[in-house]
Amino acid sequence: MAKVAINLSTGSIQQEEIIVGIDLGTTNSLVAYIHPDGRHPVAINDQGRGTIVPSVVHFPGGGDTPIVGTDAKEYLLTEPQNTIYSVKRLLGKSYQDLGQHAQELGYKVIDDNSEGLVKIRVGDTFYSPIELSAEILKELRQRAEHALKTPVNKAVITVPAYFNDSQRQATRDAGRLAGLEVLRIVNEPTAAALAYGIGLSPDEEKTVAVYDLGGGTFDVSILRIQQGIFEVLSTNGDTYLGGDDLDRAIINHWTQQHQLAQAVAASGSLQQELRLLAEAAKRYLSQHEDFAANFNDVVLRLTKPEFNDLIRPLVERTITSCRQALADAKLTPADLDAVLLVGGSTRVPLVYDAVSEFFQQPANNSLNPDEVVALGAAIQADILGGNRRDVLLLDVTPLTLGIETLGGLMDPIIPRNSKIPTKAGRQYTTSVDGQVNLKISVYQGERDLVKENRKLAEFDLRGIPAMPAGLPKVDVNFILNADGILKVEAIELRSNTRQAVEIKPQYGLTDEQVEQMLMDSMTHAREDIAARMVIEARTVAEQMLYQVERFVAKNGQHLTPEETTQTHAGVEQLKAALTTQDKDTILKAVDELEELTRPFAERVMNISISQAMAGKKIE
Ligand code: ADP
Ligand code: MG
Fold first, then answer.
1. Do residues 64 and 392 make contact, with C-beta atoms less than 8 angstroms apart?
2. Does the keyword ATP-binding feature in the UniProt annotation (predicted)?
3. Percentage of the chain with pLDDT > 70?
4. Which of 49, 184, 368, 480 pairs with 32 at a CA distance of 20 to 30 A?
């Protein structure tokens, strides 16, 4: 029985709100929930269509009403320009981030603004990866609502442990666009561990490796679980290595063996057929010894040993990552209590063997590797829904976060593999006398020069009192929250001037708005700068007038009548200059008044110093 709640003010009965767990995968996505009977996680299988929803969005005829999932996948080869796959790779990325990979996709990625986030063109419409991911999430949400016969408005969504802030934020925004309140973004390996029941009892202490080989990506994470706290000790992987590469190895093998290149190049449907056969062979060989099928007048065969030889180099690459992850975590295989297998491609026996051999223990594959992340997300949803003892989730930041310093150097503040939530800071100062603004540019990445890293945000700490260079003390603090969202805060300690940003790159804005903002900042740049300079000049002038008037009032008796007249004239001239909005007129008057008053200011200074000294005894 589902729990019911009674609204005491209206007397109406409310069904317990369902929070689903979603694995938004590069290749496949799933939605799961906690079954009220027995309170165990279940992947939703709506209308017997299976639990897996291929992460493919197809726009029939290039129109704007998409279909999602298995039906959309059919069009990958016949209508590639209208069929979007692997959109997760584009989430939160600029065209620059994608580099040469942009050309490898079958659809059109727009590169007109290489600094901005990528767009995908379908027909005459431009889509952001956020919108396309939202289509997948909408499909999952609809399936859940249909199967559970209740509205679904809340979700936990998983992301790879290596996802950066913009990618996490993009995932959140995709959820919002799909009408889901995203309660938490959870790392996929953390979800997998939860699904295996690790970390659910308070006195448990475990260290585990999560090996996730999916359709197009590979990652391995080392987690430490202690008192219900999940901590990612390290992550490693390859974002361009997965089951698709195994398929490709088979395709290449058959193509060479039977000289299929020409025939396949000439026919899209043959190409499609060959691809499907390769995947079928791979899956078949996970359980059998040989595969055979007819293809365009030839019989394609593959034995398991042949297949293993084809894919061994690929599997070896994943083991190299495992070695690195273990080294980063400063552990040896003997330190691991369990090795968990995640992702459809871990069904390949050679993968199982290689992983078990490297970690010196049998890997755990007792849960369905397709579903394990979604199941764990459902458990996390249940925890957040208050149905379980609160389990704290700690993750790790996979890339260094820092700011730009003189000469374009990257100054790391939070090093990669730091546990989150975390806070770190450093003190800076100005490089120029009288500097009133300090620009803080935030970058993410491992290179020494910021131009090689990814820029996340930039802001000015304004209003630092003009002081000689090196005197202001500016604390820059980075605060990374449990969702991996970064807040950067700068404080000038003498004046307590502060400025903070939450790092949310362009998300939430339409392209038109982003473009408009860019245009505005450019078209108004001159007047903005001019206005600021006038204000700065006025500030200087007003300070000068204040000081001079105070000086005259205090030291008038030391001035000759001529000096007094000249000073008055200079003051009047500056006051007149202040009635204009011309910074040059103002600054010229400031300069003249300063020239005029400097000699007697110095003289008076000497008098007061000698008086002070006369009053004191110097030993
Ligand atoms: P992702 O997390 O990237 O969305 P999945 O974990 O769903 O991906 O994995 C999809 C991959 O798993 C595909 O390449 C698919 O061919 C592969 N796969 C699924 N079942 C098997 C199997 N029985 N044997 C080998 N590979 C499989
Ligand atoms: Mg996955």
1. no
2. yes
3. 86
4. 480
Instruction: Collapse the DSSP code of 373 into the 3-class scheme (helix H, G, I; strand E, B; otherwise coil) and give the result.
Output: helix
Tell me the ligand closest to 369's alpha carbon: 1
Q: Which amino acid is at 1?
A: M
pLDDT at residue number 46: 93
Cis previous bond, 421, omega within 30? yes
H helix or E strand, kind and range, residue 593: helix 583-615
Question: How do strand 486-492 and strand 474-480 relate by DSSP bridges?
Answer: antiparallel
Estimate the crossing angle of helix 372-384 against helix 188-195, to 10 degrees. Answer: 90
Looking at all shown ligands, the one closest to residue 373's CA atom is 2
Q: Write the burial class of residue 220 (CB in 10 Å: 0-12 exposed, 13-18 middle, 19+ buried).
A: buried
Pocket of ligand 1 contains residue 279 by CB under 6 Å: yes
Query: How far apart, in whole angstroms, are the C-alpha atoms of residue 175 and residue 138?
Result: 8
Q: Is 185 helix (H, G, I), strand (E, B) or coil?
A: strand
Q: Could you tell me the domains of the chain?
A: 1-196+370-393 (3.30.420.40), 199-366 (3.30.420.40), 401-512 (2.60.34.10), 527-613 (1.20.1270.10)
| Ligand 1 close to Cβ of residue 217 (< 6 A) | yes
Which whole-number Å values give the CA distances from 416 to 161, 189, 357, 419, 453, in the listed order? 12, 17, 28, 9, 13
Please choose, from the candidates 504, 530, 544, 527, the residue with its C-alpha nearest in 3D space to the C-alpha of residue 583: 530
For the CA of 343, the nearest atom of ligand 1: 6
Query: How far is the centre of ligand 2, averaged over its atoms, from the C-alpha of 186 (Å)?
Result: 13
Pairing of strands 154-159, 181-187: parallel
**343-399 pLDDT, tens per residue?**
999 999 999 999 999 999 999 999 999 999 999 999 999 987 777 655 555 555 666
**Ligand 1 atom 20: the closest Cα is on which residue?**
344
pLDDT digits (tens, 9 = 90+) for 561-579: 888 898 999 999 999 999 9
Active site residues per annotation: 23, 88, 188, 212
CA of 218 to the centre of ligand 2 (A): 9
